[in-house]
Amino acid sequence: MSGWPNLDRADDERLARSLAVSDPGALIQVMDRYAARLYDYCHALLRDHEQAAGALHDALIAAYAHVSVLREPDRFRGWLYALVRNECMRRLRAPDRPAERREAPEVEDGFLDEVELSRRQEARRLVHGALSGLRGRERESLDLMLRHGLDADEVGGVLGLDAHEASNLTGEAHARLDDALAAAYIARAGRDDCPEAAAIADDGGWPLPPPVVRRLVHHIDTCRICGPRRDRAAVSAARLLQVLPVAMMPTDLRGLVMATATDPALAPDLAAIAHGAEPFDAWGWPAMVDQEDGKPAAERGGPRGLWAALAAAAAVIVVVAGAFYVMHGSGGKSAAQGPTGGTSGSVADPSSPSDSEEPSDSPTPTESESPTPTPTTTT
Question: What is the 3-state secondary structure (H, E, C) of 320-334?
Fold first, then answer.
């Protein structure tokens, strides 16, 4: 995403090796490079700013504690996302998860004028309509690939798929998104030129239901009017997904992470969080949390008063934590860590975290066929 730091795999490996010797400076660099995008991913799964902050905090502490078990440090990026996803899964299945969810504000872009804001809103409506036709696993894989910059192998590691399964999933999801974008575009912009397309689109409402999308795609493929229009309107899905909101990370999260990692008084909390992230497989990847029967976060042994203790400790350590990202209501100024502005409803209300047959338009987490991520073997 525009506004997030560029990622370099050589730097990732260097960071992983530095983190493996418990270098606090490496943890600060990891947060500089990854915290904003990981928070956005957490928020997309949990749809609550406090839950997302807690999940990211614990995932970063788990990474700090366990990175030495990762056998392929060059896969550090996907490994981080796998840790984050597990923390989100635990919270999604926690029996005491709050019923009310409060979403984070959106990272604002102060350089957009009214015309550009209007165009962005229209583009978002187009993307929302297209995403509504995809299933949870498809949406999540595209979010990881097109917005977060993971490749197919890394997506497979996060979702617990082998290389072949991950390639098939991302390829099919990308093709379905392209079809859905074309259908949404024709439904909104091409109806005046083609009565048949207008009649099909009028059958469904907005966003277009999957059966209507399929009918429109079939029509476009055979229509002399709509076919050329689709080709002219073809836009990179990755580029279009950049218009989606980016959740703003809380201003104090970096300080809280540094406090847990470095304050001796919080060593029991660090140990509890690290234990909660276990077990890890032979490659050093976290065993995926079962979404139906997985142990909830409340039962992992972490102290319920952790956040209050961290806040007090962070007051001392915050000076060395670097520049903060800002959350609405936390009293700081905005740091532009993403390309968008407004409120952060990344796509829509969350749906069930299972990979159901019924599609919806949020990048919800999905249950994997295999129990753990499967890194590529080295020779």
Answer: HCCCCCCCCCCCCCC
